[in-house]
Amino acid sequence: ARSPSSPPLPPSRQILQEGAESSQRRLLIEAFVSAGRVDNIAMVMGLHPQYLSSFWKTQCLLLRMDGPLPYHKRHYIAIMAAARHQCSYLVGLHMEEFLQVGGNPAWLQGLHCAPQKLRNLNEINKLLAHRPWLITKEHIEALLKTGEDSWSLAELVQALVLLTHYHSLASFVFGCGINPEEEQDGGHGCRPPSPHSDGGPAPDDGVGGSGGKDAVREVEALMERMKLLRESQQEEEAVTQEEMATRFELEKTESLLVAPSDLADHSLQSSVLCFVEDPEFSYKDFTRRGEQAPPTFRAQ
């Protein structure tokens, strides 16, 4: 429902808005049924249904469809990538997914507990996250060389796509200010009934029975929250320049009172940085005035 102060929408706008809402509802129901949850990333992207649809197709191809890497390793690589940017939201999300598909809980104690083959990705993960121009063919050759912990070319390609995907998604999470769900363990809704330790796809449960009805009710509640968000955005559009300037000054003043991040969250050290080696390595300008540009590795 629209607020009393809002002017009525013209018929054409009403039709478009109703169509967008039905598209959002269908997408959210699909997500709830297939994944057992609708997370906050989906809630934000749901404001743009076409983008959300493309994003989910990509996620499904990377994490659930056929590929050389078993499912639990795909989620562990996602954890490694998100931890490189200290994105605790994505790390927590994929720790849950890792266990759901039968991953070894001991690996979640930190990167040092993972198999050497996965640990060998650390160097290229670090470079891709912060200074990708430093990657050379030697980095690829080192991972592909024959040995007990070597990667096949197909495995490495999928691993690199996962790393870059989750580096980018971490930026999206930070940029949109996405926070953990209210129920961190299960998100908004139920989890799939049991993990699949064989790494194979989960069977289709369908939408029938009480589970489907619960999913629909849950999505109805989520859609209502999205309506409220849209209304608040419309109210923001009506704010005058003077009001915006006043708010900005207030926010700037309050931001000076925020405690430094290095004193704030100690839990980040244990839950995220345990998946990171060489945490001091970070972004550095590609080239500076008066300096010789570093060599680049051109694949094409």
TrEMBL record:
It comes from the Eukaryota. It catalyses: a hydroperoxide + L-cysteinyl-[protein] = S-hydroxy-L-cysteinyl-[protein] + an alcohol. It is found in: Cytoplasm. InterPro entries: AhpD-like, Sestrin. The keyword Cell inner membrane does not apply. The keyword tRNA-binding does not apply. Residues 183-213 are annotated as: Disordered. One of its GO terms (biological process) is negative regulation of TORC1 signaling. Keywords: Cytoplasm, Oxidoreductase. Its main location: cytoplasm. This is SESN2 protein. It comes from Lophotis ruficrista. The gene is Sesn2_0.
